[in-house]
## 1
Amino acid sequence: MSEQYDVIVIGGGVAGLSTAANITEGNVLLLEKDRIRTEEKRYLRFTFMDSVERLGISECIIRRYDTISFQASANRLDVEYNDFEFGLIDLGKLHRKLMKYILKKNEIKEKWVVVDVKNRNKMIEVKISHDDTIEKILTRYLVDASGTSFLTKKIFNLPHPDFICHCCEATFSGGYIGDPHTITFIEPSTRFKFGGSLYPYDKGDYSFGLTNNLDFFNLSLKSFEKKIMKEKNDLGLSDKIEGGDICVSNIDLVPLGSQYSLIFDGVCYVGDTVGQVTPWMIEGVRPCLDASIMCANAINAALKQQEKSLLERYKKGWDSTYGVVYNKVNLAEKWNRTNEEWNNSLKRMMKLSKMSKKLFLRYLKYDQMSEDAIERLMELKTSLDK
Ligand SMILES: Cc1cc2nc3c(=O)[nH]c(=O)nc-3n(C[C@H](O)[C@H](O)[C@H](O)COP(=O)(O)OP(=O)(O)OC[C@H]3O[C@@H](n4cnc5c(N)ncnc54)[C@H](O)[C@@H]3O)c2cc1C
């Protein structure tokens, strides 16, 4: 390990790996406190196919769906697409692919924990620890992609994402699959306040992500897991799954949609650490990948032209795609809806789906919406909320 780098990236999740892979200028070191998660089919996430194709990572898709179905307690909306709009991405495979890119030119250190960061004469000093060894290294720019540890936000006392919800990943093994081409999004029911996505990923297996939106700060992860296990049969899934057993594989926190401090004093924030997750679908992979490319491009420009202020391009890029929508929608308010509002939201979806398929998809995706489209959505929301 050398003592000085142009860029240090903290975190070997999809945000950190993709940022490091897209930095083409200077020398880069990526630090991951554990092992990078590369296990095949262990970390499956649904995503939108157009982005996958645009980003050239189609080989990481292990399944495609051509129908989506929304389900609230009493209503249901099926939207069919002829082209595959949704796919299941194998994050382990994507991580491996990104690691390969990085290692062509740069360094990855696993099992090294970043423990402190300080500004020192136009450079950033990063203190790292491995077993009993502590080292200090310098860098021109730092990328914090440390996810929900919010590492440098804590160190610099910056605001964290406003809203954090619990997310659980469960697998139903051996159950009967209703329709293997359909991905279902379930809105929190009035009784359980859980929402989630359900998708078949293998013969006889369903994967199910569940989110608890409302009790966010009051519920420990342990009690969340307990609640899920207890309520699994009552979540409106019985028409989709018959038999099978549930296995909870991963429970974690997901921060949603904050717009604070994407850049602070030579440090760029990417991914979960700044809540770059879409509020409706708790979808983080695509926004993480998009943000990481914007961030890497800004760092490339700053390094090439030796001009720190060019980092601002990252914030501008984000604001002109996702940011404008994330900013307009008051997220905490949106997630803290009453029971009636939850039920009304499906009706809103139905109305939207009739407006235009394109707008409906953009509503789900929160990206590249025109001001005009946002205004129409806001008007629709106001009229339905009355
Ligand atoms: C259960 C669950 C289901 C989900 N389902 C979907 C889905 O279906 N579709 C979708 O698009 N999104 C989904 N998401 C969201 C998506 O997975 C995340 O938004 C995305 O993976 C975040 O990536 P990241 O790189 O920002 O963070 P992470 O993957 O958390 O990576 C952060 C990394 O930083 C490392 N790190 C932390 N602190 C330090 C330190 N001090 N030093 C060194 N390294 C450090 C951590 O070990 C970790 O590897 C889901 C999330 C969860 C929890």
## 2
Amino acid sequence: MSSPEAPPGPADASTPARRTHGGETAGERAGGVARSLLDPRTWVHMLRLAHLASYSHVRELRRIHLGAGVRIAPNATFRNGERIAIGKHSHIGEHDMIWAGNSHGRITLGDYCLLAPNVTITASNYAVVQGTPVMHQPKEERDVVLGDDVWLGANVIVLPGVTIGDGAVVAAGAVVTKDLPPQCIAAGVPAKVIGMRPLPDGADR
Ligand SMILES: CC(C)(COP(=O)(O)OP(=O)(O)OC[C@H]1O[C@@H](n2cnc3c(N)ncnc32)[C@H](O)[C@@H]1OP(=O)(O)O)[C@@H](O)C(=O)NCCC(=O)NCCS
């Protein structure tokens, strides 16, 4: 039977410094942190991050029409907040992106909507005519409307022009390209209706 390994003792001259999972010693890591704090580019980058948080979250939040009791993750991002409305008690998850159009495309969420993390809702597409870089083509904007009590699972993408009916559930990872009826369960790319939400016990359809 092999004997159990002795627990690591205090470091001395005969004991090599312990390495982290990244392969560096604690001293090397501390040196790296110190070097990065002395690098002016670190501070410029932090300012850029603060600016990103301001223009995509803080500034836009002031423009959004928010119902009572809405909860929004601090890293959700918004564009053109003056064309976004979120109904009461809805929840916007971590890393969600709700991007209304630059000129007229609106995004409207009903009451009690639940958006899981990493949901993207956009009201604009670029035109894709050949011969001009896409980024230089005009945007085509169409409204997006979610009814009340809509649940979008993690990583759902909702494209311009889509209306999702009250009570619809969209499965994780779906891409919604066309309207969805109330109370449906939809999944896939593109999203298709795979069922309906069950009625409570004893209720008639
Ligand atoms: C949509 C959802 C609610 C359906 O749950 P459910 O009614 O229990 O459905 P089931 O697990 O019984 O699956 C029903 C069918 O849909 C399929 N399905 C389930 N989720 C799917 C998904 N995300 N994408 C594609 N198909 C899916 C199943 O494979 C199954 O297919 P089958 O009948 O051919 O076997 C659930 O799958 C889901 O996506 N939840 C989102 C979870 C999430 O994002 N959580 C974050 C916290 S807010």
